[in-house]
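Hi support team,

I've been running sequence recovery on a batch of backbones for a student project. Most finish fine, but this one hangs at about 90% for roughly twenty minutes before it completes. I'm not sure whether the input is malformed or the queue is just slow. I've pasted the structure tokens below so you can try to reproduce it. Let me know if you need the job ID as well.

Thanks,
M.K.
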């Protein structure tokens, strides 16, 4: 980064900045810096630039140079948006690593990394703020022209204003008008982060004198009793707290806003606007004390010893073994050393559940970051991390992109979870693997925690690349749950099954309800019925955009596509043969909830899946209701399997284990074991032994036996033999290429050509092209090419460079027209 010691000298030098644009372009673009901006440019600041004929974007300064681009004439940057860099140089290096490793572009990583409120883009619409009551005569000529034009026409675009003023650089003028609150700018360009402002009140110091205060009361009680009530309420509140907001005073006094405003006008109360946090409980600091059990202490000591030699340690602790308390001790050590901590969780469900537990120990030191936050909240967290105000960040996978200053520890809880993998759009990264690289950049340590580790992590621990610590006993001596496997086929034959519930499961549910205990039922499919089928001609409604059948949702009464969101009305007559004999096949969480309500009318039943947790606080409300025992039975998808800890959940029912066990994927057994073991681990926590009922057609399946015996090692060694034989991870690296096109015949030729070109370089390491399980999504047909490479003796960087070259060469041919090629590194 250039230093500007002599401002006068520097101001006349010609600088160029290479910027990262939020676009999927292969190279970063260079812009010229106007002389007057020379002293303001810094790596990591946002600048407004024009790209193409008329589009404008926010870009991040990547490099500053005096060397102009050779191939084109550099345009000028139009504006600088920040007083200080909002992205650190370490972050930019991290983005570049991610783009390189996951075979995408810097701009795609920037798009994923920055909260949308920090990004500006063009095709902007400008409107007049009708609430502005200021003096327009103070505007300069150009500002006045824009306001006058908006008085005549309610909406203008950037290009309209460019033509109106006869100049390209209109963004600085618009920014000033926006800051003066005169115009509104649409989402694409609006600098959308606005601090949350609140009015706080203080009593005029004159009335700190008791005589003056008594005199004031005497006047107000006669002339304005409501105002007198408000002053009394203020004095009462001031004894309990330092800061009193206008809203609080209105609520406490019941005097109404007009009375408070009158007190402000009379200067009895002094009003001050302050920026307050949107983040829940930020100022609340509740500190609790706990002691580690001997097993936890041993594991903690082991982890610390391993950290002396290894940068990454795997903590393999069975469900309910108390891994969170070990994490807390490690976080305390990191904070004591003055360093920041990132605590990653795979699901927002876990984030909201665990945050309250962690706040007991760290109070205002902890921040939360995930996609359920609105834009303003995400920017607020971003800025607090940048300022080092937060020592601990708890978040889902996107939290790896935050601007950490000194990251000393990253905890990746439930490290095996597939939720850490981003599948679409690019970058298709795994947050667990990215976290390891990020910690290395900061000289920090990584703790991976899981009861059922991913085979890759366990392999790395067994081969001493990672350290390994184990917790083999449940906290408090609670026994592992009793697991009973029930044959669906057998009970169907005996006619003892009710709907989808075997007699064994119903017996345990009823017993739990009688004991005032709670039940969780797991079915890894949402909706009411996965398939609507005509009994006469076997017609099944399919999505018009994707190669999947539509799922019936009873709450909407429509058929839904879970891939593109398409919906259509449920037919009462078969569109193919005209028959009225339509029936629903299969079942999802919605149907389980519905039928359970008929079987157990007195039970309080709730559902936790994507459909019931879409709104902002719905997920937290469900968890709170479960914690407060307002729910007897919770029906859910895989959300219920991940880290939930409730004292009175004693029965877990797995409605149909076969859907996981029979999935056509080399990881099916690993994932099934993880899911079954994790769901089972929700039962019998905090001193109570639980019961798990697994309903299945295949009662003798090897994985079910391994779950019952809690034998992770047997699963690992059995599966690893197969992986080694068929060249799968962790012994081989895998890269998948999806080729997409709207015409299946063109796609066939494109995929065949690409596979042939790849085979010229990699031979039989190239498999395919194959048609994936879902062969069309959003009107794009898909073909997949899989590449497998040995971990030893092959340079993965050279492999990726060659694949990039082949894709680039393919994209220069006429054959590639209309195609999309998506590389996915470590795709599973």
């Amino acid at each position: 980064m250039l230093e500007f010691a002599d401002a006068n000298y520097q101001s006349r030098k010609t600088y160029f900045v290479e910027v990262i644009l939020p676009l999927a372009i292969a190279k970063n673009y260079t812009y010229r810096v106007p002389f007057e901006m020379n002293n303001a440019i810094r790596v990591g600041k946002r600048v407004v630039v024009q790209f193409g004929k008329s589009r404008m974007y926010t870009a991040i300064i990547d490099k500053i140079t005096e060397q102009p681009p050779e191939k084109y004439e550099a345009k000028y940057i139009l504006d600088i948006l920040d007083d200080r860099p909002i992205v650190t140089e370490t972050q930019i290096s991290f983005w570049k690593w991610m783009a390189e490793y996951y075979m995408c572009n810097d701009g795609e990583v920037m798009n994923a990394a920055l909260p949308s409120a920090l990004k500006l883009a063009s095709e902007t619409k400008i409107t007049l703020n009708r609430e502005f009551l200021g003096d327009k005569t103070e505007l300069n000529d150009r500002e006045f022209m824009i306001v006058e034009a908006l008085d005549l026409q309610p909406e203008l675009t950037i290009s309209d204003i460019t033509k109106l003023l006869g100049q390209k650089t209109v963004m600085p003028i618009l920014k000033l008008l926006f800051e003066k609150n005169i115009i509104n700018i649409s989402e694409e360009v609006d600098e959308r982060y606005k601090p949350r402002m609140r009015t706080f009140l203080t009593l005029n110091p004159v009335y700190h004198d008791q005589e003056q205060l008594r005199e004031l009361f005497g006047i107000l009680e006669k002339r304005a009793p409501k105002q007198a009530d408000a002053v009394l309420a203020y004095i009462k509140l001031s004894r309990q707290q330092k800061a009193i907001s206008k809203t609080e005073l209105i609520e406490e006094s019941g005097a109404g806003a007009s009375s408070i405003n009158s007190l402000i006008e009379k200067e009895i109360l002094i009003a001050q606007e302050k920026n307050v946090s949107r983040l829940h409980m930020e100022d609340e600091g509740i500190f609790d004390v706990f002691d580690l059990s001997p097993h936890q202490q041993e594991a903690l000591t082991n982890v610390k010893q391993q950290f002396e030699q290894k940068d990454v340690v795997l903590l393999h602790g069975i469900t309910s073994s108390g891994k969170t308390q070990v994490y807390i001790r490690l976080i305390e050590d990191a904070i004591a050393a003055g360093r920041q901590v990132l605590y990653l969780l795979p699901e927002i469900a876990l984030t909201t559940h665990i945050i309250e537990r962690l706040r007991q120990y760290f109070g205002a030191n902890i921040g939360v970051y995930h996609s359920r936050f609105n834009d303003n909240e995400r920017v607020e967290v971003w800025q607090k991390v940048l300022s080092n105000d937060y020592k601990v960040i708890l978040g889902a996978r996107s939290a790896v992109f935050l601007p950490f200053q000194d990251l000393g520890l990253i905890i990746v809880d439930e490290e095996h979870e597939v939720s850490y993998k981003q599948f679409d759009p690019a970058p298709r990264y795994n947050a667990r693997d990215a976290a390891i690289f990020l910690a290395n950049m900061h000289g920090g340590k990584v703790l991976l925690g899981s009861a059922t580790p991913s085979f890759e992590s366990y392999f790395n621990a067994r081969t001493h690349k990672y350290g390994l610590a184990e917790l083999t006993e449940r906290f408090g001596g609670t026994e592992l749950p009793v697991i009973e496997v029930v044959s669906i086929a057998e009970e169907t034959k005996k006619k003892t099954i009710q709907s989808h519930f075997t007699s064994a499961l119903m017996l345990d549910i009823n017993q739990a309800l009688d004991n005032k205990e709670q039940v969780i039922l797991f079915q890894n499919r949402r909706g009411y019925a996965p398939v609507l089928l005509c009994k006469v001609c076997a017609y099944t409604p399919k999505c018009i955009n994707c190669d999947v059948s539509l799922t019936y949702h009873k709450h909407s009464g429509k058929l839904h596509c879970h891939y593109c969101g398409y919906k259509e009305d449920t037919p009462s007559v078969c569109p193919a043969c005209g028959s009225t004999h339509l029936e629903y096949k299969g079942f999802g969480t919605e149907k389980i909830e519905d039928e359970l309500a008929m079987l157990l009318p007195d039970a309080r039943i709730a559902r936790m899946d994507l459909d019931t947790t879409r709104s902002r606080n719905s997920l937290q409300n469900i968890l709170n209701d479960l914690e407060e025992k307002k729910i007897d039975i919770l029906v859910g998808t895989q959300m219920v399997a991940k880290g939930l800890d409730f004292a009175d959940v004693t029965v877990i029912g797995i409605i149909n284990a076969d859907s996981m066990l029979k999935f056509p994927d080399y990881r099916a057994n690993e994932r099934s074991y993880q899911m079954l073991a994790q769901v089972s681990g929700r039962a019998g926590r905090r001193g109570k032994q639980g019961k798990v009922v697994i309903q299945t057609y295949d009662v003798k399946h090897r994985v079910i036996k391994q779950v019952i015996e809690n034998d992770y090692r047997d699963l690992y060694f059995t599966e690893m033999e197969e992986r080694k034989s068929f060249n799968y991870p962790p012994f081989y690296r895998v890269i998948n290429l999806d080729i997409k096109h709207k015409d299946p015949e063109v796609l066939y030729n494109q995929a065949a050509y690409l596979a042939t070109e790849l085979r010229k370089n990699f031979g039989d390491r190239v498999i395919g092209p194959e048609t994936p399980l879902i062969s069309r999504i959003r009107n794009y047909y898909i073909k997949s090419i899989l590449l497998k490479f040995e971990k030893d003796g092959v340079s993965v960087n050279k492999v990726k460079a060659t694949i990039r070259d082949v894709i680039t060469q393919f994209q220069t041919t006429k054959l590639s027209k209309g195609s999309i090629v998506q590389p996915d590194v470590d795709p599973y």
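--
Follow-up from support: It reproduced on our side and the slowdown came from queue contention, not your input. Residues 132 and 182 are 6 Å apart (CA to CA). No action needed from you.
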